[in-house]
């Protein structure tokens, strides 16, 4: 379970989309949200957009691995889509905030790899949120007002990358993923091979 978090606008969605396009081994965890769709966002690909009533019912029915209120809307990771994949040992990518990261870490322990994406500066963060052209001035002001509070959670993450140049940052994320996949504890498929190597020779 690879988690990307950042203050809004630092670039985690950009990194996530590229990773999903280039790495067929990892699947997205598509969240459920009460937020209205942004122009260009696709139902079932970017989010499942639901009413407040539907979200509350799902939360009551324990349908989320984690959920949180972010910028006045609710966001949750539905269990159904990833339960089977996780059993099969598949990799999943989560674009979630620090609250969801804490909840997933408590539930999944060492199966979670957490990356925090920092912007190169607060000024550049504002430029990116404005340049994206998807949010009102009010929404941007709200997200900027919360950015520094979110950055204080950077020390709960396993890795921290600065998204200045997107290519360099993306390369770092790929390196992290490659190294994590090579961890001995994740390479259970190698056990028969190692047993074979260890058989007495001659
Ligand atoms: N390294 C970069 N240099 C310049 N612009 C970038 C860079 N990375 C991302 N951007 C741009 O910044 C804007 C915000 O990026 P993105 O939507 O990926 O952020 P985010 O962290 O997912 O935000 P949110 O949490 O609000 O969804 C987009 O317009 C994106 O194209
Ligand atoms: N805890 C969770 N946080 C989530 C989830 N899906 C998205 N998010 C985070 O919300 C903010 C705002 O997202 P935006 O798409 O409205 O810009 C951002 O930090 C996301 O990472 C979730 O399922 N759980």
From TrEMBL:
<comment type="function">
    <text>Essential for recycling GMP and indirectly, cGMP.</text>
</comment>
<dbReference type="InterPro" id="IPR017665">
    <property type="entry name" value="Guanylate_kinase"/>
</dbReference>
<feature type="domain" description="Guanylate kinase-like">
    <location>
        <begin position="1"/>
        <end position="178"/>
    </location>
</feature>
<dbReference type="GO" id="GO:0004385">
    <property type="term" value="F:GMP kinase activity"/>
</dbReference>
<keyword id="KW-0418">Kinase</keyword>
<dbReference type="InterPro" id="IPR008145">
    <property type="entry name" value="GK/Ca_channel_bsu"/>
</dbReference>
<protein>
    <recommendedName>
        <fullName>Guanylate kinase</fullName>
        <ecNumber>2.7.4.8</ecNumber>
    </recommendedName>
</protein>
<keyword id="KW-0963">Cytoplasm</keyword>
<keyword id="KW-0067">ATP-binding</keyword>
<keyword id="KW-0547">Nucleotide-binding</keyword>
<dbReference type="Pfam" id="PF00625">
    <property type="entry name" value="Guanylate_kin"/>
</dbReference>
<dbReference type="InterPro" id="IPR020590">
    <property type="entry name" value="Guanylate_kinase_CS"/>
</dbReference>
<dbReference type="InterPro" id="IPR027417">
    <property type="entry name" value="P-loop_NTPase"/>
</dbReference>
<keyword id="KW-0808">Transferase</keyword>
<dbReference type="InterPro" id="IPR008144">
    <property type="entry name" value="Guanylate_kin-like_dom"/>
</dbReference>
<feature type="binding site">
    <location>
        <begin position="6"/>
        <end position="13"/>
    </location>
    <ligand>
        <name>ATP</name>
    </ligand>
</feature>
<comment type="similarity">
    <text>Belongs to the guanylate kinase family.</text>
</comment>
């Amino acid at each position: 379970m690879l988690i990307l978090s950042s203050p809004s606008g630092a670039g985690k969605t950009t990194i996530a989309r590229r990773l999903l396009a280039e790495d067929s081994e990892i699947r997205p965890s598509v969240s459920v949200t009460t937020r209205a769709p942004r122009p260009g966002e696709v139902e079932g690909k970017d989010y499942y957009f639901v009413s407040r009533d539907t979200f509350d019912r799902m939360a009551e029915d324990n349908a989320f691995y984690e959920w949180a209120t972010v910028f006045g809307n609710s966001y949750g990771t539905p269990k159904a889509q990833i339960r089977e994949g996780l059993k099969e040992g598949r990799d999943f990518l989560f674009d979630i905030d620090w609250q969801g990261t804490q909840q997933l870490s408590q539930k999944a322990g060492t199966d979670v790899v957490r990356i925090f994406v920092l912007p190169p500066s607060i000024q550049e963060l504002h430029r990116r949120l404005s340049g994206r052209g998807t949010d009102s001035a009010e929404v941007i002001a709200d997200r900027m007002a919360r950015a520094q509070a979110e950055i204080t959670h950077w020390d709960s993450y396993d890795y921290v990358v600065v998204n200045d140049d997107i290519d360099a940052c993306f390369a770092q994320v790929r390196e992290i993923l490659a190294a994590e996949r090579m961890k001995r504890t994740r390479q259970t498929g190698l056990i028969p091979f190692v047993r074979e190597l260890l058989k007495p020779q001659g």
